TrEMBL record:
GO terms for cellular component: phosphopantothenoylcysteine decarboxylase complex. This is Coenzyme A biosynthesis bifunctional protein CoaBC. CTP binds at residues 103, 113, 130-133, 154, 168, 172. Residues 10-225 form the DNA/pantothenate metabolism flavoprotein C-terminal domain. Its EC number is 4.1.1.36, 6.3.2.5. It comes from the Bacteria. It catalyses: N-[(R)-4-phosphopantothenoyl]-L-cysteine + H(+) = (R)-4'-phosphopantetheine + CO2; (R)-4'-phosphopantothenate + L-cysteine + CTP = N-[(R)-4-phosphopantothenoyl]-L-cysteine + CMP + diphosphate + H(+). Transmembrane segments: none annotated.
Length: 232
């Protein structure tokens, strides 16, 4: 589909998308990171804007040009990303967590560069990061304050893709979970993506290998349908 040929079915909807991969500081020059390019999140932002949504894109370390029609909020770490997503989610109809959020961060990042010294290197102690997606869903479940009508996550799985995905959807409590099969040159940093979308209380939707924009459009089809059901 060309951008112009899309339905305007997200007109008037506020959408928050997280994209990219967080970096967790070890010291001022080093970090723990991951291989997420941000391409899928950016495709989601572009297509949502083309379908009429007001888009806030929380971008963690993405080296791509800003998508047309999106407000970009740059972040670095998981804690930064959490603050930006939770703030934007206050007034959002939809949150899609496409970012690869580091599960752990160095527990005590150094203020100055760690120097090489002879002998056994010091281990890096890790602390667990908050789970932003689970937190959003938990807030909505508690019913305290405004909450997005639709909350979606992404998961990259290597083995037992469907079973792992199902368990994750239930554990997080989100509405949609886009499950990618990764490994052997799939998904990370490539323009194409194949996936299955798990739907809470519904049948899974398979998305054949194709451009990330096509996957994004299928996600918005499902989001738009769910918005019509839950928050007309
Ligand atoms: N996520 C999040 N906060 C985290 C970790 C993950 O919001 N601290 C979100 C991701 O953005 C993604 C979804 O949760 O949308 C699934 O991420 P994933 O890493 O697959 O889930 P985890 O619960 O961290 O499980 P795993 O042990 O497989 O990494
Ligand atoms: Ca994880």
């Amino acid at each position: 589909r060309v951008l112009a040929g899309r339905p305007r079915d997200l007109a008037g909807r506020r959408v928050v998308i997280s994209a990219g991969g967080t970096r967790e500081a070890i010291d001022p020059v080093r970090f723990i990171g991951n291989r997420s390019s941000g391409r899928q999140g950016y495709a989601l932002a572009r297509t949502a804007a083309a379908r009429g949504a007001e888009v806030t894109l929380v971008a963690a370390n993405v080296g791509l040009p800003d998508p047309a029609g999106a407000t970009v909020v740059p972040v670095e770490s998981a804690l930064d990303l959490r603050a930006a997503v939770l703030a934007a989610a206050e007034s959002a109809d939809v949150v899609v967590m496409a970012a690869a959020v580091a599960d752990f961060r160095p527990a005590d990042p150094r203020d100055s560069k760690i120097k090489k010294v002879p002998g056994e290197p010091e281990p890096i102690r890790l602390a667990e990061n908050p789970d932003v997606l689970a937190e959003l869903c938990e807030r909505r479940r508690r019913g305290a304050g405004p909450a997005p009508g639709v909350i979606a996550g992404f998961a990259a799985e290597t083995d037992d893709v469907l079973a792992n995905g199902r368990a994750k959807l239930a554990r997080k409590g989100c509405d949609l979970l886009v499950v990618n099969q990764v490994g052997a040159g799939l998904a990370f940093g490539t323009p194409d993506n194949a996936a299955v979308v798990l739907v809470a209380g519904g049948d899974p939707v398979e998305i054949p290998r194709g451009p990330k924009e096509e996957l994004a459009d299928t996600v918005w089809d499902l989001v738009a349908a769910r918005l019509r059901e839950t928050a007309p």
